[in-house]
Amino acid sequence: MYVSNVIPISRGITKESLSYFSKEDLPVGSVVSIPIRGKSTPGLVHSTVSVRDYKSELRELPYALKKLDRVKASLVFLPEFMEAATRASDFYASSTGAVLSSMVPKAVLDDPRKVKVSYTEKTNKKEASATTVDSVKPRVEKVVLQADREERFSTYRGLVREAFARGQSVYICMPTIYEVEQFALTSERGINKYTFVLHSALSKAELLKRWSNASSEEHPVLIIATGNFLGIPRKDLKNIIIDHESSGAYRTQVRPFVNIRIFAELLSRELGARLILGDTFLRIETLYAHEEEEAAELEPLRFRPMSQAEQVVIDMRKNKPSTKGIYNAVSDELSELIHKTRENSEHLFIFSARRGLAPTTVCCDCGGLVRSTKSDAPMVLHKTSRGNIFVCHQNGEIRSAAERCVHCGGWKLTALGAGIQLIEEQVKNIAPNSKVFRVDKDTTNTPKKVKEKMDEFYATPGSVLIGTEMALPYLAMPIENTAIAAIDSVLAIPDYRIEAKVFALLLSIRALTQKKLLVQTRNKDQRVIKYAIAGNLLDFYREEIDVRRALNYPPFAYFISITILGKKPKIEEDIKLVEESLKEYDVSVFSAFTSESAGSQSAHALIRVSADTWPDQKLVKKLRSLPPHMTVQIDPPKLI
Length: 640
Prior knowledge:
Blueprint: E1 2-8, E2 18-22, E3 30-36, E4 39-50, H1 55-60, E5 66-67, E6 74-75, H2 79-91, H3 96-103, H4 106-110, H5 125-130, E7 141-146, H6 149-165, E8 169-173, H7 177-186, E9 195-198, H8 204-216, E10 222-225, E11 237-243, H9 260-271, E12 274-279, H10 284-291, E13 296-297, E14 310-315, H11 332-343, E15 347-351, E16 360-363, E17 380-384, E18 387-391, E19 398-400, E20 413-416, H12 420-430, E21 436-439, H13 447-458, E22 463-467, E23 479-484, H14 487-491, H15 498-512, E24 513-521, H16 527-534, H17 537-551, E25 557-566, H18 568-581, E26 588-595, E27 601-610, H19 617-624, E28 630-634
Parallel strand pairs: 2-5, 7-12, 7-13, 8-10, 8-11, 9-10, 11-12, 14-24, 15-22, 15-23, 21-22, 23-24
Antiparallel strand pairs: 1-2, 1-4, 3-4, 3-6, 16-20, 17-18, 18-19, 25-27, 25-28, 26-27
């Protein structure tokens, strides 16, 4: 008889692990079905000990252990993967089961017997189960690659050949399904039988088949997949590549909001694998790691990407809105480019910010933009119980909305939002004979629909495509002309990393453009625009890292946000609980409530911790003890 320590794989169970009796000596890394609250839940065996070695502990338990009847354990994961999940649970102040629930496809957890593996080498179970999160691991070999997409893809193909020659497998991780499929088309023809493409759009049967074949293939393999397939058990996986590493799609959308980049680094450390981070413009955090010699260069970093396209910045302040807030979102220059695109049978892509963004505010008299006094960032209009206010989502500046225009002293300040629907309508009015396509969540809500729309666009000379950020990964081929309709509204996104993201966005669109790029803005002197148009990556990085150092922002610190959801009286009680529980960590509570669905409201708290000391086990324990209706996010995308 044995006692198995099992990790429940579920986001709704706060217990880190549960213990059960079993007749079998269950292997570490196997998936079993465990009874919880009258239901069967998948669980991962973390350790197993003989009852004879556990007698004294059993006597002291305040409850009786349940028995696992009719156990059909399936060995699915490597101990190294389990250890990475445990470390990630500390980083995200969550449970290992919640991390696994986010990082493993549901199809695998629902039917583990179809992907179970049998290792030829014997695993020392005592050594595997004795590993703790405090064990000292060798420093991960992290390398970076900053180059355009085609150059990166060529480098990756060379790395795969070298890895196969050394008997090593390679995992190339892409942020979206389309990017996975596009890179798969460029992979070496001679290794097709050893290449496995995985993503969530596959049917359950096909997904399980490819997972099983990828794990059991004796030859080294190339896995091209999104991030939730890192659990495929390959002892020879010694190269993990995270491409387009700046993409926001690497952050999971459900608790505990795992960042695939962080998990890949933890897994690389456990496997003794090399981690490669690649992009046209790497994240500020990654470039700083390189500067601090925590990451080596795979190749010399490209800080001056070339572009043959003509690049023009359009000052939109001359387009003054009416008193009703209606204004022309298409400049004369863009209107001319739309007509030339049709006349020359070319193509034009117009980027528009996502729908639902907070509007920018401009003066009806002079066309000036309401901006923060501390930076170039536009102020966003908010409605509160105490009246309207302007808020800067980058530095937290707050001002009364009852102010005059700082440029001309006028009172006619109007909130504007040049959404994609307005731009589409105006483009159709300007060029009624041009074919106009639109890609956003409202019109193309599946990858298949987006691809169909993109294929039609490329096949239609003289056409115009208007798209949000979701269109960018699908722009696989160069385009003659491009335009950014309203870069200011993008900068209004409540994300303290937004300038770096906009810089990367401008660079990616710039790289796609063959002939002409237009950028419409009400603040043409912004450093983001100037450096991106010039292709000056190095100076932008230097200024951005100086700002973050001065503000003690990542990579120098981590922010931890706590969102409290409920009715107002209960939230006020919860705020006191948070302040008392975390008082030694200088927690900041934002007292302004945000309206949510079903009449509920939310409040927010924020903690800043040193990057060098995180995860702090004492604070992790306190965060884990908070009630389930409080959402904890480590390194959140926005601060308020």
